[in-house]
Amino acid sequence: MSKASHNNFTVKFANVNGTGSSSANGLFMKSIFRMGIPVVGKNYFPSNIQGLPTWYEVRASEAGYLAPSGGVDIMVAMNAETYDQDLAIVDAGGYLLYDSTWPRENLMSRDDITVLGVPLARMCNENFDTARARTLMKNTAYVGSLAALLNMDMSVIEQLLLDIFGSKTNLIDANKTALQMGHDYATSNFECPLPFETKSSNKKRRLHHD
């Protein structure tokens, strides 16, 4: 578990393959890189079949380490099927972020981590019209929550959205809405930033993505 510091942490995303999470997770990593912070991302695909579990791990390291840290400071648990195992690998003192739209009374819990519930599905159902948009924007919304928790530069993320989507203003607007939605919820309901956070740096060496 990272102690109080900046630019040293590992975030792991547990997703369902085919839900558009890859783009959002990449957005998160690239935004850290654009803040000048050394960062590495690694995919874990047990299967490429739609609907099966997938994981993505992002390590930020001020010293520029590229190997996995061996720990998880924040778990973004978006797959109910793997919740138990995802919960189990969070470092003591770490955090688990999940979609609190759905009750978790029967799910496992731990006394040595902090669970952060964000009603991602509910917020997206209220703000987007189509099922596809609601599914995709849940991912961008959790990036917004992470941005608040880690004190990331929102202007960097928004510029990256412009670079990604170009003239597709409808996609830019939708993603900005979801991003801000997640950010606002986190700042209103959690103590932000966390003890470990991002600070713009000039130490980036390369963006490594598997």
Provide an overview of this structure.
This protein has 210 residues and is α/β, with parallel strands linked by helices. It has a single domain, classed as Pyruvate-ferredoxin oxidoreductase, PFOR, domain III (Pyruvate-ferredoxin Oxidoreductase, domain 3, 3-Layer(aba) Sandwich). It is 38% helix and 21% strand. It contains six helices and nine strands, in the order E-E-H-E-E-E-H-E-E-H-H-H-H-E-E. The protein has helices at residues 21-34, 83-88, 120-127, 131-149, 154-165, 169-189; strands spanning 5-6, 8-16, 39-44, 53-61, 74-77, 95-99, 114-118, 196-197, 207-209. Strands 7-6-5-2-4-3-9 form a seven-stranded mixed beta sheet. The chain has a two-stranded parallel ribbon with strand order 1-8. Strand 5 (74-77), helix 2 (83-88) and strand 6 form a beta-alpha-beta unit. The protein is globular. The two termini are 23 Å apart. The relative contact order is 0.21. The model has no long low-confidence stretch (mean pLDDT 91).
Architecture blueprint of SSEs:
Elements: E1 5-6, E2 8-16, H1 21-34, E3 39-44, E4 53-61, E5 74-77, H2 83-88, E6 95-99, E7 114-118, H3 120-127, H4 131-149, H5 154-165, H6 169-189, E8 196-197, E9 207-209
Parallel strand pairs: 1-8, 2-5, 3-9, 5-6, 6-7
Antiparallel strand pairs: 2-4, 3-4
Helix pairs in contact: 1-4, 1-5, 3-4, 3-6, 4-6, 5-6
The CATH topology assignment is Pyruvate-ferredoxin Oxidoreductase, domain 3
Separation, N- and C-terminal Cα atoms: 23 Å
Task: Please indicate the percent range of residues in DSSP E strands (runs of 2 or more).
Answer: 15-25%
Count of helical regions: 6
Enumerate the strands of the largest sheet in spatial order, edge to edge or round the barrel: 7-6-5-2-4-3-9
Q: Helical percent range? A: 25-40%
**Backbone shape:** globular
Domain count: the total is 1
Calculate Rg over CA atoms.
16 Å
**Corresponding CATH architecture:** 3-Layer(aba) Sandwich
